[in-house]
Amino acid sequence: MTTKCKNCPLRSLPLFKPFSPADERFMEKFKIGEIRVNPGTQILREGTSSPKLYTVLSGMGLRHKVTEDGNRQVVGFALPGDFLGLEAGIVGEMRHSVEATTDMVLCVFGSSALWSLFRETPSRAFALTQVAVREEILLAEVLTVLGQKSAIARVAWALRRFYDRLNAMELSSNGRVPMPYRQQDMAEGLGLSLVHTNKTLSTLRADGVAIWEKGWLSIPDPDALDRLAGISREPLEERPLI
Amino acid sequence: MTTKCKNCPLRSLPLFKPFSPADERFMEKFKIGEIRVNPGTQILREGTSSPKLYTVLSGMGLRHKVTEDGNRQVVGFALPGDFLGLEAGIVGEMRHSVEATTDMVLCVFGSSALWSLFRETPSRAFALTQVAVREEILLAEVLTVLGQKSAIARVAWALRRFYDRLNAMELSSNGRVPMPYRQQDMAEGLGLSLVHTNKTLSTLRADGVAIWEKGWLSIPDPDALDRLAGISREPLEERPLI
DNA sequence: CGATTACTTGAGGCCTGTCAATGATGGTGG
DNA sequence: CCACCATCATTGACAGGCCTCAAGTAATCG
Lengths: 242, 242
Fold this sequence. Notes:
Two copies of one chain form a homodimer. Chain A is of the alpha+beta class. In chain A, 40% of the residues lie in helices and 21% in strands. In chain A, strand 10 (211-213) and strand 11 form a beta hairpin. Chain A binds a DNA duplex through helix 7.
C-alpha cells in the first residue's frame, strides 16, 4: 500500500519546502509506487540508464564511483528526502552507483514523466534544478575539504555535517543519531585509508569530542568538533522535496 | 556591438547541442548584452547574489572557494561555453567565486528572466538542468581523483582533461593548447602543494610525456599520460549551450 | 633598475598509507 | 550448542609520498 503524497512523512519536516497544490497534483501523477530494499541492494548502477527515479523515504544508502584500478570513492550519502537517479533522467546514464546501507523505502517515479514535468509544471522543474544545484554545491564543499584539510579536520567535518543533517530529519534520540555506515565508507568518502580513519576516530573518541560506535554517533563537545573541522558550519537550508 | 545569438561563434562547434528556433528566440530576449573583463577581475563573488548570469564567449577563468583559514580551493575552470552564476540564480547566492584569468568576453543575461525561462521554454529549462547535472558529474569525478589518486596521476589527469576540452573548443594550434593558469592554480585545484605540483610537472616534462611551459600545453606522449592518469578518458559529450 | 610575481630546486620531517596481526561480533550449518 | 567463517574494528610497526621551509633564478613592469 503506497502513501499518498499528501500524507508523506517527510513533507512535515521544516527542512523541506512546502508543496503547492499544483505540485502535489503533479507528484501524485508522477508517482508509480513504493519499494523496499535490503542492505547491500544496488539501487542504481554507474554506467546504466534507469527507467525509474526515486526519493528516499526512509533508510540510508551510499553513492559511489569505482575507478579503473578498482578503488571506490564515496561521493555522497543517500538520506531520507534525497532524490536518486537525476543523472540517468537528465543526461541518460548514471555516473555513480547508489546502494542501500540499511533497509530502505523508496518512492518510485517513472523517468519518462520527466519531460512532462518540465512542460507542465515549471515550479517542479525549478525545484528539480535546485536539487541538482544543491548537490553541486555540496560536492564543491566536499572537494574543498579533501583538497585543503587534514585527516582530523576531514573526519570532524564529516561527523558534524552528518549529525546536523540527521538532526534536521528528526532522527536523533537521546542525543545521538544513527550512523549505520562502516568506517571504510567514511574513509572512502574522505580520501583517507581505513586504518588512518580508524585512528582518527579513536582520537576523537578518546578526547571526548565525538563518539561513533556500534552504529550510533554522539557529539559530547560540539564546539571542539567545529574547531577541529575548521570550517564555519553553514546552517542547513530549506530544500525542495521531489 | 553585441553579437546576435544566431551568429554566436560557439554555436557552430560540435561540442554544443544545436538550438531550436524557439530556443533561439528566447535566448535573444534573455540576453542583455556583452561585457569584456580584464585578468584578475572578480566576475562573481562567493556569498553574494547576482542580478546577472553569464556565458563565457572567449577567454578563461577560475572558479574557487576560500576556507576559513584563508586557503583557496579551485573548484573548476571557466572556459568558453561555460555558464556562470547558476548558483546565484537558482539558490540565491554564489557558493564559489569566479575570476578572470585572461581577458574574457561574456554574454550577459538578466537573472530575473530565469523564471520566465522555466515558464515559457521548457526545453531551455531542461538544458539548464543538464548544465547543472553535468557540473555535478564533473565535480564527482574530480572528487574521485583527489580521493584516490597520487600526485602524478592527478596532474596527468588534469592536463589530459584540459587538453581534450580545449581541443574540442578548437583552440589548439600546432599541437598545443593555451594554458594561461599558474602552477599554483593547478595545485589548488588538485589538493597539492605548489612545490610538489611543480616537481611533478618537471617529471612529466623531463620524461617527454606532457609539456606545460610559458602558457602553452603540449602532449608528446598521450598514451603515457593516460597510463599515468589511470582513468579511462571519457569522450566529451555534446552539451547544451545557454 | 628595484619591485613584484611566477617558477625552480634542495633539504628535512611529518602526516598518512601500507602491511600485518589480533579482537569482536554475528551468522550459519552440523 | 558449538565450531567455523565472514565482516568489521583495532592496534603496532614501518616506510614513503608529500608538505614546509628556504633560497635562488627568470621574467615582467613601472
